[in-house]
């Protein structure tokens, strides 16, 4: 396993996890961020979806955690239940044999059970701001003991919905705590908010988007709205298809799902109105390959990390360029095969999509479906 300048030799449990994961080298964001994180400095990191951001902060932080000290040393905040559980799963995989305990804290789950787990004083907590704040109010989390706080998908945390809660959590922590911000996109206004509570000398790490590089093909099929369900059904039968279908509107997404299921197509559904258990079940079954299509809203799929997704299908056009990047980033993850982003667009959506392609500088090809294959449109 490689070593990085500024970091000691990795502990055996990290080396073992690295080997089992089959990684050969660090990604750009990992190389740039890890030394600063290990030294204890504040870091703001903007790197594309699928670039290894989670490990960029997890590895140096887990290396620093002392399992013999029975208190919470690291707090990781994320805006969605799915992302919290995903990060927790990653922590479990990278702490095997280390003696480092962790627990997820999300709203909707049994708070008494969470309090019981907190009595074991896990070194790493991963949770949503609302539930973390509630447990702090109940004096079940001792904020002043926590050395490092991570905000994963920080652009979703530093928004009006979550900001007051996040600020309350930070104010309860000690002054010299370490703050790490990670996201695929960090708009200027988010960075300005972050600067109000971060060290003035915080290291800013920016990695250019690889989402728009040749590993991902961006194509579109021109159609009317009424044709989209049938086109998606045909796409789902394309050879090698394992796809995420995106739509902003939950009601429309449900209609798509009902009609496709009625047409005997197995699929999973992922949106914020579904119960926590239903969402977890949908992700688990999709990972296991029980079906090859998962329909999702943008919010519900935030942070979703499934290695072998080959197709992203935009059933509507994302509301902005940032959302397009987030959707596209769910395919061709590190260590995965190439991916295709297929947008099913009506004439109005086609114009917006072409604008995104110009602004984000990616090649966009018009395609048709012919005999179960995507072919260039004439």
From TrEMBL:
Helicase C-terminal domain boundaries: 215-378
Tagged with keyword ATP-binding: yes
Domain Helicase ATP-binding: 34-204
InterPro entries associated with the record: DEAD/DEAH_box_helicase_dom (IPR011545), DEAD/DEAH_RhlB (IPR044742), DEAD_box_RNA_helicases (IPR050547), Helicase_ATP-bd (IPR014001), Helicase_C-like (IPR001650), P-loop_NTPase (IPR027417)
GO cellular component, one term: ribosome
Record-level Gene Ontology MF annotations: ATP binding; hydrolase activity; RNA helicase activity; RNA strand annealing activity
A Pfam family of this chain: DEAD
Domain of life: Bacteria
CDD domains cross-referenced by the UniProt entry: DEADc, SF2_C_DEAD
GO annotation, biological process: response to cold
Record's keyword terms, sorted: ATP-binding, Helicase, Hydrolase, Nucleotide-binding
PANTHER family: ATP-DEPENDENT RNA HELICASE YFML-RELATED, DEAD-BOX ATP-DEPENDENT RNA HELICASE 47, MITOCHONDRIAL
Annotated protein name in UniProt: DEAD/DEAH box helicase
Native source species: Halobacillus salinus
